[in-house]
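idk why but the lab printer keeps eating my pages so im just putting this in chat instead. protein + uridine-5'-diphosphate:
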Amino acid sequence: MRILVTGGAGFLGSHLIDRLMQQDHEVICLDNFYTGNKRNLLHWFNNPNFELIRHDITEPIRLEVDQVYHLACPASPVHYQFNPIKTVKTNVLGTINMLGLAKRVGARFFLASTSEVYGDPDVHPQSEDYRGNVNCIGIRACYDEGKRMAETLTYDYHREHGLEVRVVRIFNTYGPRMLPNDGRVVSNFIVQALQGKPLTVYGDGSQTRSFCYVSDLVEGFLRLMASDHTEPVNIGNPGEYTILELAQTIQQRINPEADLVFEPLPQDDPKQRQPDITRAKNWLGWEPTIPLDEGLTKTIAYFRDRLQTP
Ligand code: NAD
Ligand code: UDP
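predcted complex ->
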C-alpha cells in the first residue's frame, strides 16, 4: 500500500514509519519539522519506497494514498503551548485538510488522539465512554479541545461521507527519539540525571501517569488500523506511577547523588491518569509487553548516546 504519515519526522511517527517500511509499504511522510527532525528518518533516505515532503498541514495538499496515519501535532505541553493558536489550527484546519485528502481518494483515516480528551479525569481508570473533564479556557485547551475537535471532525467525515476511520487515544508514551529538550517528564528526568542537574518535580509529585513504551504503542496502532473497529480505542500501559516515584526510579538508575527539586504545578495538570485497556484487549488482542524498567533501560541508553553526539 501507499501510506501517508503526517508528523512522521517526530517521535511516534518515525517509529511508525520504521514498521511500515519494514512491511514493504510505500511511505510518504509530511512534516513541517516544528518538533520533528530529519535525523529520525535518515536511515530511509536512500530507499525508493520512502518520500519526505516538507509541508505544513494547515495548508491543503493533494496526494494519492491508500491509508493516512494523521499524527502531526506537537505533543509536549512546552511545545503546544508555545503558540497555542497554531496548535488549534494544526488540530482543526490541519485535520480538515487531511480528512479532505483521505475523502478525495477513499483512503482509510487514522487519527492520533490522546488521553488529554479526558482532561483532569474524575473517573479512574479512564475508559473510552468517559466524556472527560476539560477546562476549555485553560492553557492546555488548545491541545485538549483541539484533539476533541479533531475527533469530532473525524466522526463527522465518517457519518457524512462514509470515510473509514480509526481513532486511537494515546496515553503517555516514551522511548528513543524523544527530544532532549522536549519538556515531557521522562525525557526531562533522564536528561537532568545524566547531566548531573536536579530533577524537576512539579507540585508535590503525587500526580500519576501511566507510561507506555513506544514499540508497544506502534503495535497497537497497526492492529487498530487493520481492525474493523470505528470507535475510539485507548492504547497505553496501565502501570500507574506517581511522578515522585518516577523521579526516584530514574534518580536511582542514573545518579543517586542527583537532587530532586520541587517546582510549581502547571495550571490544569491532570491529577491522575490510567488507561482502561479492555477494548484494546478484546478488540485487538493487544496489551503492552515492555515493563517500565526495561523501557527505561532502552531510553536511558538512547539519551546517553544522544547527549554525546553534537
Ligand atoms: P512530536 O512532537 O515528536 O511529533 C509531532 C510531529 O508533527 C513533529 O514531527 C512535528 O514537526 C509535526 N508537526 C507539528 N505541527 C505540524 C504541522 N502544522 N504540519 C506538519 N507537521 C507538523 O510528538 P509525538 O509524541 O510523536 O506525537 C505524535 C502524535 O501523537 C501527536 O498527534 C500527539 O498529539 C499524539 N500523542 C502523543 C502522545 C505521547 O505520549 N507521545 C500522547 C498522546 C497523543
Ligand atoms: N512533570 C514534572 N517535571 C517535569 C516535567 C513534567 O514533574 O520536568 C510532570 C507534569 O507536571 C505532569 C507529569 O509530569 O504532572 C507528566 O508531564 P508530561 O508533560 O510528560 O505529560 P502530560 O502532563 O501531558 O501527561
